[in-house]
Write a structure and sequence with these properties.
It is built from 13 helices and 13 strands. By secondary structure, the protein is α/β, with parallel strands linked by helices. The relative contact order is 0.16. The structure holds pyridoxal-5'-phosphate.
């Protein structure tokens, strides 16, 4: 046996950062503290009370009366897969209106669970008119329509007000990915008649990635119940599986997850205790501020950032009337090549992270997030100040102080 000491590497000591990309963002300190609370057993009445409270809190965040509003363990993608994998059966037609990278993700997930996917595409930076989606629904008669609310890849948000009604008139269920909007823009689950909606914590909820709050309408629950299969070893007496096909994933089976979160407390996974503490605290922080106040804070910060960027002579990306309230796309000036040197200097010299882009927007736009805990005046001013300095060192002559002054003006 070797007597060499194991290499333990250095202590974990992440450098100070201001995370102004499209997520993750800096975690609200109270949420970090909640995560260090002691473990409880998963059936300890104290813990199941926290589970119930978390459900009640997320009903408020999602603006819903939906009983089945709970957490899926895993990042936002786990919530998406749980919803789509539970709603879409083999051979089901699914319509995916795509206006960015995450629309492609929804289509890919639906395909993997056997859905027959039909997609329509809007040019990146734009969104759909309701009529365009309605026509596609009438033409293809999908069982499920799957749509992103705010697509961080293009920084635009799809209006959803009347889409649920159109879906229901045509016997389709509506799934919405609200990962990047929950807490930063209204997500009116009941008013907009969303059947399944999911999100993450690491954006406007000011939490860490790793838990995905979901909410399901009665229509969605009915569909999932028809596919109800309980795994062996925990089946109750006289158990009979539902007629519908079993949901492909065991871990992300919303039918079994409902039994775990509901009064039956039928064992499934071990709930991620610390992530539940985090999710619960995130919702408390967001609700204590007030949802509407939070939306105004996000919208104002974005307005100030955009005013600052434009005053520096930079050009914003995307349809101005459908920009998200929490992430801004800005064209990289030609003097700055693909923009990576600027991002590196922002990070190394100022400790500020701004985002790169995907697909054909890579090297063309930066994405600057104003999400959650990060979304406040001092951070907007710091970011603009740093960007001006870094741009100037790299050959782009931004007018002196114009960015910060314009942002100040928005804040009054
Ligand atoms: C709109 C949207 N959907 C889904 C995701 C995937 O989230 P996660 O990385 O937490 O799985 C993201 C992440 O950026 C996103 O912005």
């Amino acid at each position: 046996m070797s007597s060499a000491k194991p290499d333990l590497f250095r202590d974990l000591d992440p450098g100070p950062r201001l995370l102004m990309g499209p997520g993750p963002v800096d975690v609200y300190p109270r949420v970090l503290r909640a995560m260090s609370a002691p473990m409880l057993g998963q059936f300890d009445p104290e813990f199941t009370t926290y589970m119930n409270e978390t459900m009640a809190l997320y009903r408020q965040v999602y603006r819903t009366e939906n009983e089945w509003t709970f957490l899926v363990n895993g990042t936002a993608r786990a919530g998406i897969e749980a919803c789509l994998g539970s709603l879409v059966s083999d051979g089901d037609k699914v319509l995916v209106p795509m206006f960015g990278r995450f629309g492609h993700l929804l289509a890919e997930i639906c395909q993997r669970v056997g859905g027959e996917v039909v997609s329509i595409e809007a040019e990146w930076g734009n969104v759909f008119q309701l009529d365009q989606i309605a026509e596609a629904i009438k033409a293809h008669r999908p069982k499920v329509v799957a749509m992103v609310h705010g697509d961080t890849s293009t920084t635009t948000a799809q209006p959803l007000e009347d889409l649920g009604e159109v879906c229901h008139t045509n016997d389709a269920l509506l799934y919405v990915d609200a990962t990047a909007t929950l807490g930063g823009m209204p997500v009116n689950t009941d008013e907009w008649q969303l059947d399944a909606v999911s999100a993450g914590l690491q954006k406007c909820m000011s939490g860490p990635p790793g838990s995905s709050p979901v909410s399901l309408s009665a229509r969605a629950v009915e569909k999932i119940s028809k596919r109800k299969h309980i795994e062996g070893g925990i089946q109750p007496e006289n158990y009979v599986a539902a007629d519908g096909s079993a949901i492909v994933s065991n871990y992300l089976d919303l039918g079994m997850l409902m039994d775990y979160w509901g009064p039956k407390r039928l064992n499934h996974h071990t709930e991620s205790t610390s992530m539940l503490y985090a999710a619960r605290e995130c919702a408390r922080v967001v609700l204590a501020e007030g949802l509407e106040q939070g939306f105004v804070r996000h919208a104002t910060a974005s307005e100030a950032l955009r005013a600052g960027l434009q005053a520096m002579g930079l050009q914003l990306f995307g349809d101005p009337s459908h920009r998200m309230a929490n992430v801004t796309g800005v064209y990289i000036p030609s003097a700055c090549g693909n923009g990576e040197k600027i991002r590196a200097e922002m990070l190394n010299d100022f400790g500020i992270e701004i985002g790169t882009s995907f697909g054909h927007l890579a090297g063309k736009i930066w994405r600057i997030g104003t999400m959650g805990h990060v979304c406040r005046k001092p951070n907007i001013l710091r970011c603009l100040n740093a960007l001006e300095a870094v741009l100037r060192r790299n050959g782009y002559e931004a007018p002196v102080n114009a960015g910060v002054d314009a942002a100040y003006e928005v804040y009054g």
